[in-house]
Amino acid sequence: MSSHIGNVLKQALATFANKGTQKHEAFQKNLEVLISLLDKTTAEHVNFPMRYMNPQLWERPEKAPVSCIEIFEDTHVTMGIFILKPNGKLPLHNHPKMHGLIKVLAGKVEIISYSINTEKTKEIDQKSLIDEMPLNPKPRKHNIVTAELNEVTIATSDSLPCLLDPNFKNIHEIHSLDGPAAFLDVLAPPYDFPISEFEIRKCSYYHKLSQVTTNIFRLQEVKSPSWYWTDSCPYTGPELFDIELH
Ligand SMILES: [Fe+2]
């Protein structure tokens, strides 16, 4: 028997598993269907443990500031739930060459996103390359990225899913507002799988190094912040092992 979350997963696989062989229009159409299914997804559909919405649970001294519920992962798609403590956050991080969709299940979040490789960032990188060339012919540091700040998004379970792609809103931080918050996260392809023969898709963390001009910042890669760690909670929603994979 199919469940709503099973249908979300099937659609995510239909969208992303064959991305390389789909025409752009077919991919966009699949993505739209996925967004509309995610839009209808609620905490009940994944049997989200509502005890996490009790602020007292987060006051235990040994409690991680973020809990994760892993729902599914293969080489194409990963799906899970992130739960943030009251006034908590996911540190600024990237999603290298990935798509991501966020649907809030409980509470309220603020998403601060940056886009990369925009017209403005490319123009600034081009200009600084020329400006620096005579004095400093060394190549640019790999761990600094020029990024354009997008409008801040506030989202609750009533909000549309939030989308990021390999350039648009690819770097973000997510805060919980007014108490704990939980969101469903669909990522494609998953972290830690190869991008190429020589490169693994790793999650990098950043801090804001400097502002270049209005809404344009240089972000510097940093180690995972010491205040950030996660614990995991088992998934207790509808079983998904019988999903007919592509
Ligand atoms: Fe993220």
UniProtKB/TrEMBL annotation:
Protein's UniProt keywords contain Signal: no
GO cellular component: mitochondrion
UniProt keyword Kinase, yes or no: no
Signal sequence annotation: none
Domain of life: Eukaryota
Pfam families: PCO_ADO
Molecular function, one GO term: oxidoreductase activity, acting on single donors with incorporation of molecular oxygen, incorporation of two atoms of oxygen
PANTHER family per the UniProt record, alphabetical: 2-AMINOETHANETHIOL DIOXYGENASE (PTHR22966:SF61)
Protein name: 2-aminoethanethiol dioxygenase
